[in-house]
Amino acid sequence: MVSTVVLLNVDPPQINQVAQAIADINGVSEVFSVAGRFDLVAIVRVRDNDTMAQVVTEKMLEVPGIIRSETLIAFRVFSKHDLESMFSLGIE
Q1: Could you tell me the residue ranges of all domains in the chain?
Q2: In the beta sheet, which residues pair with residue 40?
Q3: Taking the CB of residue 66, how many other CB atoms lie within 10 A of it?
Q4: Residues 27-41, mean pLDDT to the nearest whole number
């Protein structure tokens, strides 16, 4: 699994529409509206790098209203949430 964080600057009147359009893309697990230098943060989780490239450079960046993006590819994911879900499924 490849995980990526995509930071987005969006035309302010279009933030909600852009967030929903991105959330509807296969491979995008969450989209957060945030305060600070960026308007939206998208978490993308896909099977491989080729799929990641397709999601980020073909699908996400075709969404109207995106002004600029910055993509952070994760080397490792550390998550209490992921560990809790594994234990609840009985994975050892």
Answers
A1: 2-89
A2: 8, 33
A3: 20
A4: 97
Question: Which structure tokens are listed for 25?
Answer: 């893309």
Write down the architecture of domain 2-89 according to CATH. 2-Layer Sandwich (3.30)
Main-chain phi, psi angles of 32, to 5 degrees: -115, 135
Kindly indicate the confidence band of residue 79, based on its pLDDT and cuts at 50, 70 and 90.
confident
- Compute the CA torsion angle 41, 39, 23, 50 (nearest 10 deg): -50
pTM value is 0.84
Q: How far, in Å, CA of 72 to CA of 30, rounded?
A: 15
What are the tokens at 15? 């933030």
Helix (H/G/I), strand (E/B), else coil: 48: coil
Instruction: Report the C-alpha gap between 24 and 4 in whole angstroms.
Output: 16
The alpha carbon torsion through 28, 33, 36, 42 (nearest 10 deg) reads: 0
**Of residues 36, 34, 39, 29, the one with CA closest to residue 4:** 29
